[in-house]
Amino acid sequence: MTNTPLSEQPKIVLFGLRNAGKSSLVNNIFGREVSIVSNHAGTTTDPVTRSFELGKLGSVAIIDTAGFDDVGELGNLRVKKTIDRLEIADIVILVSRGDTSLTREELEIIEKYQNKNLIIAFTFADGEIHTDNTKKIGQTPKVFINNITGEGIDLLKNTIIELFDHVKREITPVEGLTNENDLVILVTPIDLAAPKGRLILPQVETIRDLLDKDCSVLIVKERELRYIYDKLGVKPKLVITDSQVFNKVAADIPEDQMLTSFSILFARKKGDLAYFVEGAKYLKNIKPEGKILVLESCNHHKQADDIGTVKIPRLFKQLAEPSVTFEFAKEIPSSEKLKEYQLVINCAGCMVTKNDMTRRLDILKNNQIHATNYGLFLAWAFGVLPRALEPFPYEYNLWINN
Ligand code: SF4
């Protein structure tokens, strides 16, 4: 099994009515018992996520969900969790009994999710298949599964692999920015905020990506950068720094040295860099008494001088408008609440998928909310814009045509 982070793994969500055979199907995909199977409807309560190696796709996340027809107060909450998973799915598999015709609810689901990469898996294929299910259902591919013998599972896996050719691919951290044999310097402060004994995910992913691209990687703390830079016999293609030391790094390397940050790389990889650049332009327009929302994506451990809750508000108040109120959230608020904010500042989103971030940004864009991200905010605060955008000509031009 590879160690692809869960956030990078394509998400395949299985859903359907209770007792449609979802958990048996999951067990057959894995070739062993990973989900509890029972004749009692509603055995799977909350979504269960497991990684699986799927041919040329590598590691994928298979998500088994509660029945779509779950009832009662708890059942409604489970259905909501299932819908949340469907929203972030790369591929959705509707699991339905093959021996009965599709219910009204299932047909509504097909209608609603047909623009997703949808597959129908008809289970109970050991019995007689209902004639309705043998007919074409729009363009949606269907597979008949015998959960007793495992027949149909290989076809289902191949159908998933084929559908993935249509899925929006998440780029790698330095995609298009380097060539073979380039030298790239990574500046990674090891301060109190750094996790003990390891690097953080954006740093690890960037190192691996550079090695995959046959580049050389030199990793230094900000204090040693100037010393080692002056000794280099070759000019690095790029310096990638933690955004929190942008000012020191920019001052310690020549002005013509291409520079950006991990957070800006991830704004491009996970989100929409151009949209974030347009949002950063709005930083100078925040009105007195206005509100800014800092939007993170996970429950990471907070240190005393936390970037989102402490450093960014402090810098903004010092540099721009002391009367502004900062609020903090991990989930995107309702449209009604969003209207209260003049700006949203997103984290790098290293723990979520591009689909998660795209869904979040679509909501912000539909509500006409200006948004930027941590890296761009800090580049602005430390006076490193537009320099930090030089590796990205389109977004660089967006900024200078301010
Ligand atoms: S809050 Fe955002 S940037 Fe920080 S670890 Fe979580 S996903 Fe990554």
Question: What do you see in this structure?
Answer:
- It is built from 15 helices and 14 strands.
- By secondary structure, the chain is α/β, with parallel strands linked by helices.
- It has three domains: 6-166, Rossmann fold, CATH 3.40.50.300; 183-264, Rossmann fold (3-Layer(aba) Sandwich); 274-400, 3-Layer(aba) Sandwich (Rossmann fold).
- The strands form three sheets. A six-stranded mixed sheet has the order 2-3-1-4-5-6, sandwiched between helices. Strands 8-7-9-10 form a four-stranded parallel sheet, with helices on both faces.
- Helix 11 links the parallel strand 11 and strand 12.
- Helix 10 (273-281) packs parallel to helix 15 (393-400) and helix 11 runs parallel beside helix 14.
- The longest helix is centred in the first third of the chain and has 17 residues, at 72-88.
- Iron/sulfur cluster binds at residues 296-298, 300, 347-352.
- Iron/sulfur cluster is lined by residues 296-298, 300, 347-352.
Key terms for this structure?
Rossmann fold, four-stranded parallel beta sheet, 402 residues, single chain, 3 domains, binds iron/sulfur cluster, alpha/beta
Gist of the model:
The protein is of the alpha/beta class and 402 residues long. It is 36% helix and 17% strand. The two termini are 48 Å apart.
Q: In terms of topology, how is this protein built?
A:
Blueprint: E1 11-16, H1 22-30, E2 48-53, E3 59-64, H2 72-88, E4 91-97, H3 104-113, E5 117-123, H4 131-134, E6 142-144, H5 153-163, E7 183-187, H6 201-212, E8 216-220, H7 222-231, E9 238-241, H8 246-252, E10 259-261, H9 262-270, H10 273-281, E11 291-295, H11 307-319, E12 325-329, H12 335-338, E13 343-346, H13 354-366, E14 371-373, H14 374-381, H15 393-400
Parallel strand pairs: 1-3, 1-4, 4-5, 5-6, 7-8, 7-9, 9-10, 11-12, 11-13, 13-14
Antiparallel strand pairs: 2-3
Helix pairs in contact: 10-15, 11-14
The protein binds iron/sulfur cluster.
Iron/sulfur cluster is lined by residues 296-298, 300, 347-352.
